[in-house]
Amino acid sequence: QVQVLQSGGGSVQAGGSLTLSCLASGLRGVCDYDVIWYRLAPGKERELISSGTDSVKGRFTTSRENRQKATLQMRSLKSEDTAMYYCLVYQQPGLLCSSNNYWGQGTQVTVSS
User: Fold this and answer.
1) pLDDT tens-place string over residues 25-61
2) In a designed cystine with 12, which of 16, 37, 47, 91 is the match (CB 3.0 to 4.6 A)?
């Protein structure tokens, strides 16, 4: 059973930095996995966080340390970055694997101006 545990987050003043971590366990050796970050702010739609996301471009960096661990480094934080951040571990479909989504529990990031 794949489990995804997030850590990091918290409260920070505008201009500060935070790093979120995503740790997956129970990964199947025959399957491949992607790690995708999302955020959800009150009253807004879920937003994908990637290098191509305009709202975080140049400030947020996603990285994959190894098969189990990924991080989201956030700097120059703004009040509009306040949201619940989620890590999604996506099991790619393959010969012996089916497509599956495994979500982390979410972590709150609050940026005060």
Assistant:
1) 999 999 999 999 999 999 999 999 987 899 999 999 9
2) 16
Q: What is the pLDDT of residue 52?
A: 85
Instruction: Show the tokens assigned to 76.
Output: 């120059």
Contacts of 30 (CB under 8 A, 6+ apart): 94, 96, 97
Instruction: Look up residue 8 and give its amino acid.
Output: G
pLDDT (average), residues 73-85: 97
Which SS3 state, helix, strand or coil, does residue 80 take? helix
Contact 32, 99 (CB under 8 A): no
Token pair 């994959």: residue: 64
Could you tell me how many residues make up the chain? 113
Position 28: which residue type? Answer: R
